[in-house]
Amino acid sequence: MKTAKPLKQLKLSVPAQDTPISSFLTASGTFHDGDLLLNQKGLRLISEENDSLPSETKEIDLQFSLEDLETIKVIGKGSGGVVQLVRHKWVGTLFALKVIQMNIQEDIRKQIVQELKINQASQCPHVVVCYHSFYHNGAISLVLEYMDRGSLVDVIGQLKTILEPYLAVVCKQVLQGLVYLHHERHVIHRDIKPSNLLVNHKGEVKITDFGVSAMLASSMGQRDTFVGTYNYMAPERISGSTYDYKSDIWSLGMVILECAIGRFPYIQSEDQQARPSFYELLEAIVSSPPPSAPADQFSPEFCSFVSACIQKDPRDRSSALDLLSHPFIKKFEDKDIDLGILVGSLEPPVNFPR
Ligand code: ATP
Ligand code: MG
After folding, report:
1. Which stretch of DSSP H or E encloses residue 302?
2. pLDDT tens track for 119-177
3. Which one of the ligands is nearest to 210 CA?
4. CB distance 196 to 207 below 8 Å
């Protein structure tokens, strides 16, 4: 016989006469006390028992559903789908909602959602948190931490180049994210590129789309079909050899060099006619000597850092952990470089369509 589930003891206190109303009202105009939420949307019971979320989002955990999110605007578009800025109607928290359209079989879909559930348990301040994932109407929706200064694409779009002290600060944070992914989670990101390195007004840099390229590939029927750009891909991946964590290090080196010199390292000029074709580019990455930072324009520490990342043979590349103590990172560590001020001085990311 089924035993009845004990009823949860709800917490609700009667406010004392002199309690200011502000202590019950959240920023979104929601009245919140104990387990109850009340606003113009109605009455909601909530749970405060989940410890895996930051305090401001804890209260929305269990009842998190797509209906609770209202769209503010579209903030980006990638090969897999659209990213929107959304607000949680109940608590006012902003999120980025990434909706990926995919026509896939039930079993692959279940596997993907399962993988996402594992991935979203990120406990690193330099990896974008995925709070929830839903499968709804043939699309997978990811509720992500909102990074209000966009990606490195937006930053270099305005600044053209990033100076070494700021690059060191960016690099350190990306490396901390990579140390977490490589050394703690034992996963390869596979798609480190400027649009997957996001920035916020506090000057925090975080890696996103961890697991998404693998997910898109599996939805295309083949686990290792890559969807996205090949520009930052390590030679061993392009040539179909086995690859490991070091392929992410190559990609990081390419991103950092691009941010320093203001153009993609394999492209010599802005002239469209002079640009290599897709196949010429792949051929160059696999067969030509690797690009390097010009020694007459950059510090020896920076040149050495880039060279420690962009080595054709993955065994010659440094690990994320080693790079964290590279002289280029150490040089600016105690200099109080405020990336928040730099990105705060830029125009907010341009809205889609761009
Ligand atoms: P691709 O799909 O080819 O990998 P992409 O990385 O640009 O390219 P998306 O991951 O869909 O595509 O992201 C599109 C854009 O949306 C990003 O470039 C970024 O500007 C923005 N974006 C994505 N996630 C967030 C987020 N969590 N917070 C703020 N902006 C975001
Ligand atoms: Mg992306």
Report:
1. helix 300-309
2. 666 679 999 988 887 777 778 888 899 999 999 999 999 999 999 999 999 999 999 99
3. 2
4. yes
User: What is the pTM assigned to this prediction?
Assistant: 0.83
Picking from 68, 141, 124, the residue whose alpha carbon sits closest to that of residue 132 is: 141
97 lines ligand 1 (CB under 6 A): no
Q: Pairing mode, if any, of strands 139-145 and 130-136? A: antiparallel
Is the omega angle on the peptide bond into residue 353 within 30 degrees of 0, that is, cis? yes
Q: For the chain, how big is the Rg over CA atoms in Å?
A: 23
Instruction: Give the H or E element holding residue 344.
Output: helix 339-344
351 ligand 1 Cβ < 6 A: no
Any idea which residues carry the catalytic annotation? 191
- Give CA–CA dist 161/46, Å, rounded: 47
Residue 107: Cβ-neighbour burial (10 angstroms; 0-12, 13-18, 19+): exposed
Residues 6+ apart with CB under 8 A from 137: none
Q: Kindly give the distance from the C-alpha atom of residue 300 to the centroid of ligand 1, in angstroms, as a whole number.
A: 33
Gap from CA of 48 to ligand 2 centroid (Å): 31
CA distance 136 to 215: 16
**All structural domains of the chain:** 64-143 (3.30.200.20), 148-218+226-343 (1.10.510.10)
Strand, helix or coil at 257? helix
